[in-house]
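Researcher: Structure prediction, please.
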Amino acid sequence: MNVTALPRLQLFGDAIFRDENGEPVQLPKRAYVLALFLLHLNSQHECDRAKAADLLWPGSPTATVNLRQMLLRIRDAQARAPLFAITQDKIRLLCDEVDCDVCEFNRQIVNVTFQSALEIMDLFGAGPLVDCRRLDTEISEWIYLQDEQMRSALVGEICGLLSRPAANEAPEAAFAIAERLLQICPYEEVAWQVVFKHHAAGGHVHRLEQAYERCTNALRQELDVEPSEETRALYKRLRYPSQAVSKGGPAEVRTSERRPEAKSGIPRLVILPPADMLATQSPLAALAGLMLEDVTVGLCSLRSVSMVAPHTAWRLRETFLESEDSARHYQVDYVLDTSLLTFGEMNRLTVKLFDATSRTILLSDQHELTALSGEQCYRQITRSIILALADAIERAELSRYDEQDNPTAYFWFLQGQKHLRHMDLPRVRRAKKAFRRALDIAPDFAPALSGRSRALRHEWLLMGRGEADLLAEAEGCAVDATQIDRLDARGFREMGLCHLFRSRYDDSLACFDLAEQLSPQHADLILDFAETLVHSSHPDRALSKMDRAIALNPVPPENYWWTAATIYFQMGRYQECIEAVDKMNHPMPALRLAAASWALLGNKAKAEACAQQVLDVYPDFRIEKWLSLISIRSAEDKRHYEQGLRAAGFR
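Model: Predicted structure follows.
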């Protein structure tokens, strides 16, 4: 019996449509973008023409005309092999009449096995619509988001597969899968661990060492992090099997010399991210971590609980679990431990609240997560966790979380938050796009407005502060966020920063006063308050706020030390300024301050050495231009900066 071949629609890699004889059918590039859009839009795979025109020519006054012309070209081209059903009002993708690689991907992703893993990764290849990504910026960003969703689903499923006990029973298959996965995501530590075990089992010590070096380089380049403690311990155990490996906490974690604030009768809570997030960097685990960050922000509004900031929680996860001394040192009373469990095709986020001293379990719950359609449950899970914790602390303060936000909008909000972790232009723009998607779905979603404001302000900074429209739009989004939700500190925080960059110092401080009242335990917000105070020439108050921020986040990220260095320099405490810069793993942004401090301490050699490092990276740096760009209220403080920079050798 002969089976008639179907036309073939290829959307992964370079997009192409072939008829039943395998001959190419010439279609406009935007037709493939439309096909992918319709494929995931709804069960009917159709939309009206206006929506298609807005996707393909966003913001263009000729979008409708452009679409009409494109549809005429499609009608002529697909006479040999129908792909779209086009009516006066609608466009529908004829999924049942074509063989489509994305449809095959969607079928396989729900049940990845050791037999199908390589096939589905080969099918995915370099991702969707590779040759359509230069059509224009908006379409490129949209394709990137589709790529990220499918890539996240794929990597999450493959990592789950490699984490199962069956991987140890089929080591050769697991190794082949891990090697292929690393071509898609070179920083997936679950895959690297499988590779390590394979080389060690074969007695290939040199290959093991090379693999560990490649793993370390990939993590540094892609994520700017070191391998997790679990990966390092596994490597040492495999490389030096005769030596016992210490199970202590990570030695390289730099804890602040500042002690946490003294107890004031307010219980302190730490929310620990899933171990999978730290060990594997799997997208599903990372998304769970972002949800927990949002839980932390929500609980920061409580007056009856003090929160440990997420950065410290991530860095000290194991020490909080294993050592009561750590809980005492950081004044932690309650610990919320979280983990990801995989049961076949089902992923569950488990949360367990316990007393840090007695280890008594006070709350235990599970929430189902999925990688492809999970956006329908993320917001509900976040709300559920917050309310469960608030039952034990102060539920009334979190009444605004009772509102039912659109869950898909919340999914895009989380994607935007993820991209904003990186201060580079492509990812900041992806964050801006993700927040825009959230607002298209839920225009009154205040957190997405605050997030878009932050993304626009970061873009303005990265563009050299020359695009005034970006800062104006950022301010507008912040204002809208505060008008929609007067109890959400994030809008006032962003409005305060916009005022700061416009040199409206009193307005900026007023916004931060209100933001701190709304979220008194939000460490990053308080640090921004400290930065605003130092630019407003109130270094003593700034130092007090910085101490408070570090008390809430005692293993802080690097921008804390940059702010600290700025405060110390303005106060004339040059040695402490230098020590703060030295605590940064990547000190380049603050090296100007270190150079000026060494110069004002009289150490010309070290000042010039720091200055030369800056000039090697920024050869066009000029003092007058830099001072004209930064917001400093006091002319005397500006002269202080200028004096130090000139003494260090800058011009």
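Model: Residues 137-162 form the longest helix (26 residues).
Researcher: Thanks, that helps.
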